[in-house]
Write a structure and sequence with these properties.
33% of the residues lie in helices and 22% in strands. It is of the alpha/beta class and 251 residues long. It binds S-adenosylmethionine (SAM).
Length: 251
């Protein structure tokens, strides 16, 4: 039996310490409030130029800084906020499963919008407990994990989220193949736990879902869209597929 790390779904949903960003500008996209002047870091002994560049990017990244200030566990929280603004995925009563949830930004956003409905966060990595979120430790490819999720949900889900990424090997095509494989696993998982009419949001890599996955998504869902939220780094090849209107009888 797998361990369920933190069960606290009866608590009030988590709320950020400040307003989760403001809605600004083009197409009402939520961005963090305030911007600081760009900081330059000094090159220190033992620090290569590439690690200085990486650190500068982190320090100057408006989403990382916004997440820290506004109390989100990761900059990724803004991606889900922006997807929700566009597709109205979350609302009071939405039952959510978040695959590859650690450190928990997406689960925080979900719990703050579902008004006490179950939010189940699954990850192979240990995750600190979050109010309004049931944390299940395990690999989503194990049948047992799926059973535990269904039990924790007490029924079916309305929304399956997957921001899963395989650990980076530094070998681009290996990383690509592994992350695409996880997207396919997320689709299989979703078809097991989703209620009819439910939605799946899944991270894929540039080029979108592979042909096989795309065909399967089109068979199983009424509409399928590819989206790159503003909070996703432009240099990153990640993109999200939003599939809505799950059709049970095409499982
Ligand atoms: C980019 S992070 C997710 C960030 C998260 N959405 C947030 O907002 O904080 C990707 C996560 O996927 C998890 N992951 C990768 N493969 C997995 C698998 N087979 N089963 C469960 N989790 C997995 C990793 O452990 C990692 O924590």
């Amino acid at each position: 039996m797998r361990r369920v790390w933190g069960v606290n779904r009866n608590n009030a949903p988590w709320t950020p310490c400040r307003r989760p960003g403001v809605t600004l500008g083009r197409r009402n996209v939520t961005r963090p409030q305030g911007r600081r002047l760009k900081q330059r870091l000094k090159k220190r002994a033992g620090r290569s130029s590439s690690s200085v560049r990486w650190l500068e990017r982190q320090v100057n990244d408006v989403w990382t800084e916004g997440a820290r200030r506004e109390g989100w566990r990761s900059r990724a929280a803004y991606k889900l906020i922006q997807l929700d603004e566009r597709f109205s995925l979350l609302g009071p009563g939405t039952r959510v499963v978040d695959l590859g949830a650690a450190p928990g930004g997406w689960s925080q956003v979900a719990a703050s919008r579902v008004a006490g409905a179950p939010v189940i966060a699954v990850d192979v990595l240990e995750m600190k407990s979050l109010s309004g979120v049931t944390i299940v430790g395990g690999d989503i490819r194990d049948r047992q994990t799926c059973d535990i999720v269904l039990e924790a949900l007490g029924g079916e889900a309305d929304l399956v989220l997957s921001d899963m990424a395989a650990p980076a090997t530094g070998h681009r095509s290996t990383d690509h193949v592994r992350t695409q494989a996880l997207a396919e696993e997320a689709h299989v998982f979703a078809t097991t736990v989703l209620a009819p009419g439910g939605c799946l949001v899944v991270k894929v890599l540039r080029g979108g879902a592979g042909n096989t996955l795309l065909a399967a998504l089109r068979r199983n869902f009424r509409t399928v869209h590819h989206v790159k939220p503003e909070a996703s780094r432009q240099q990153s090849s990640e993109i999200y597929v939003v599939a809505r209107g799950f059709r049970r009888n095409s499982r």
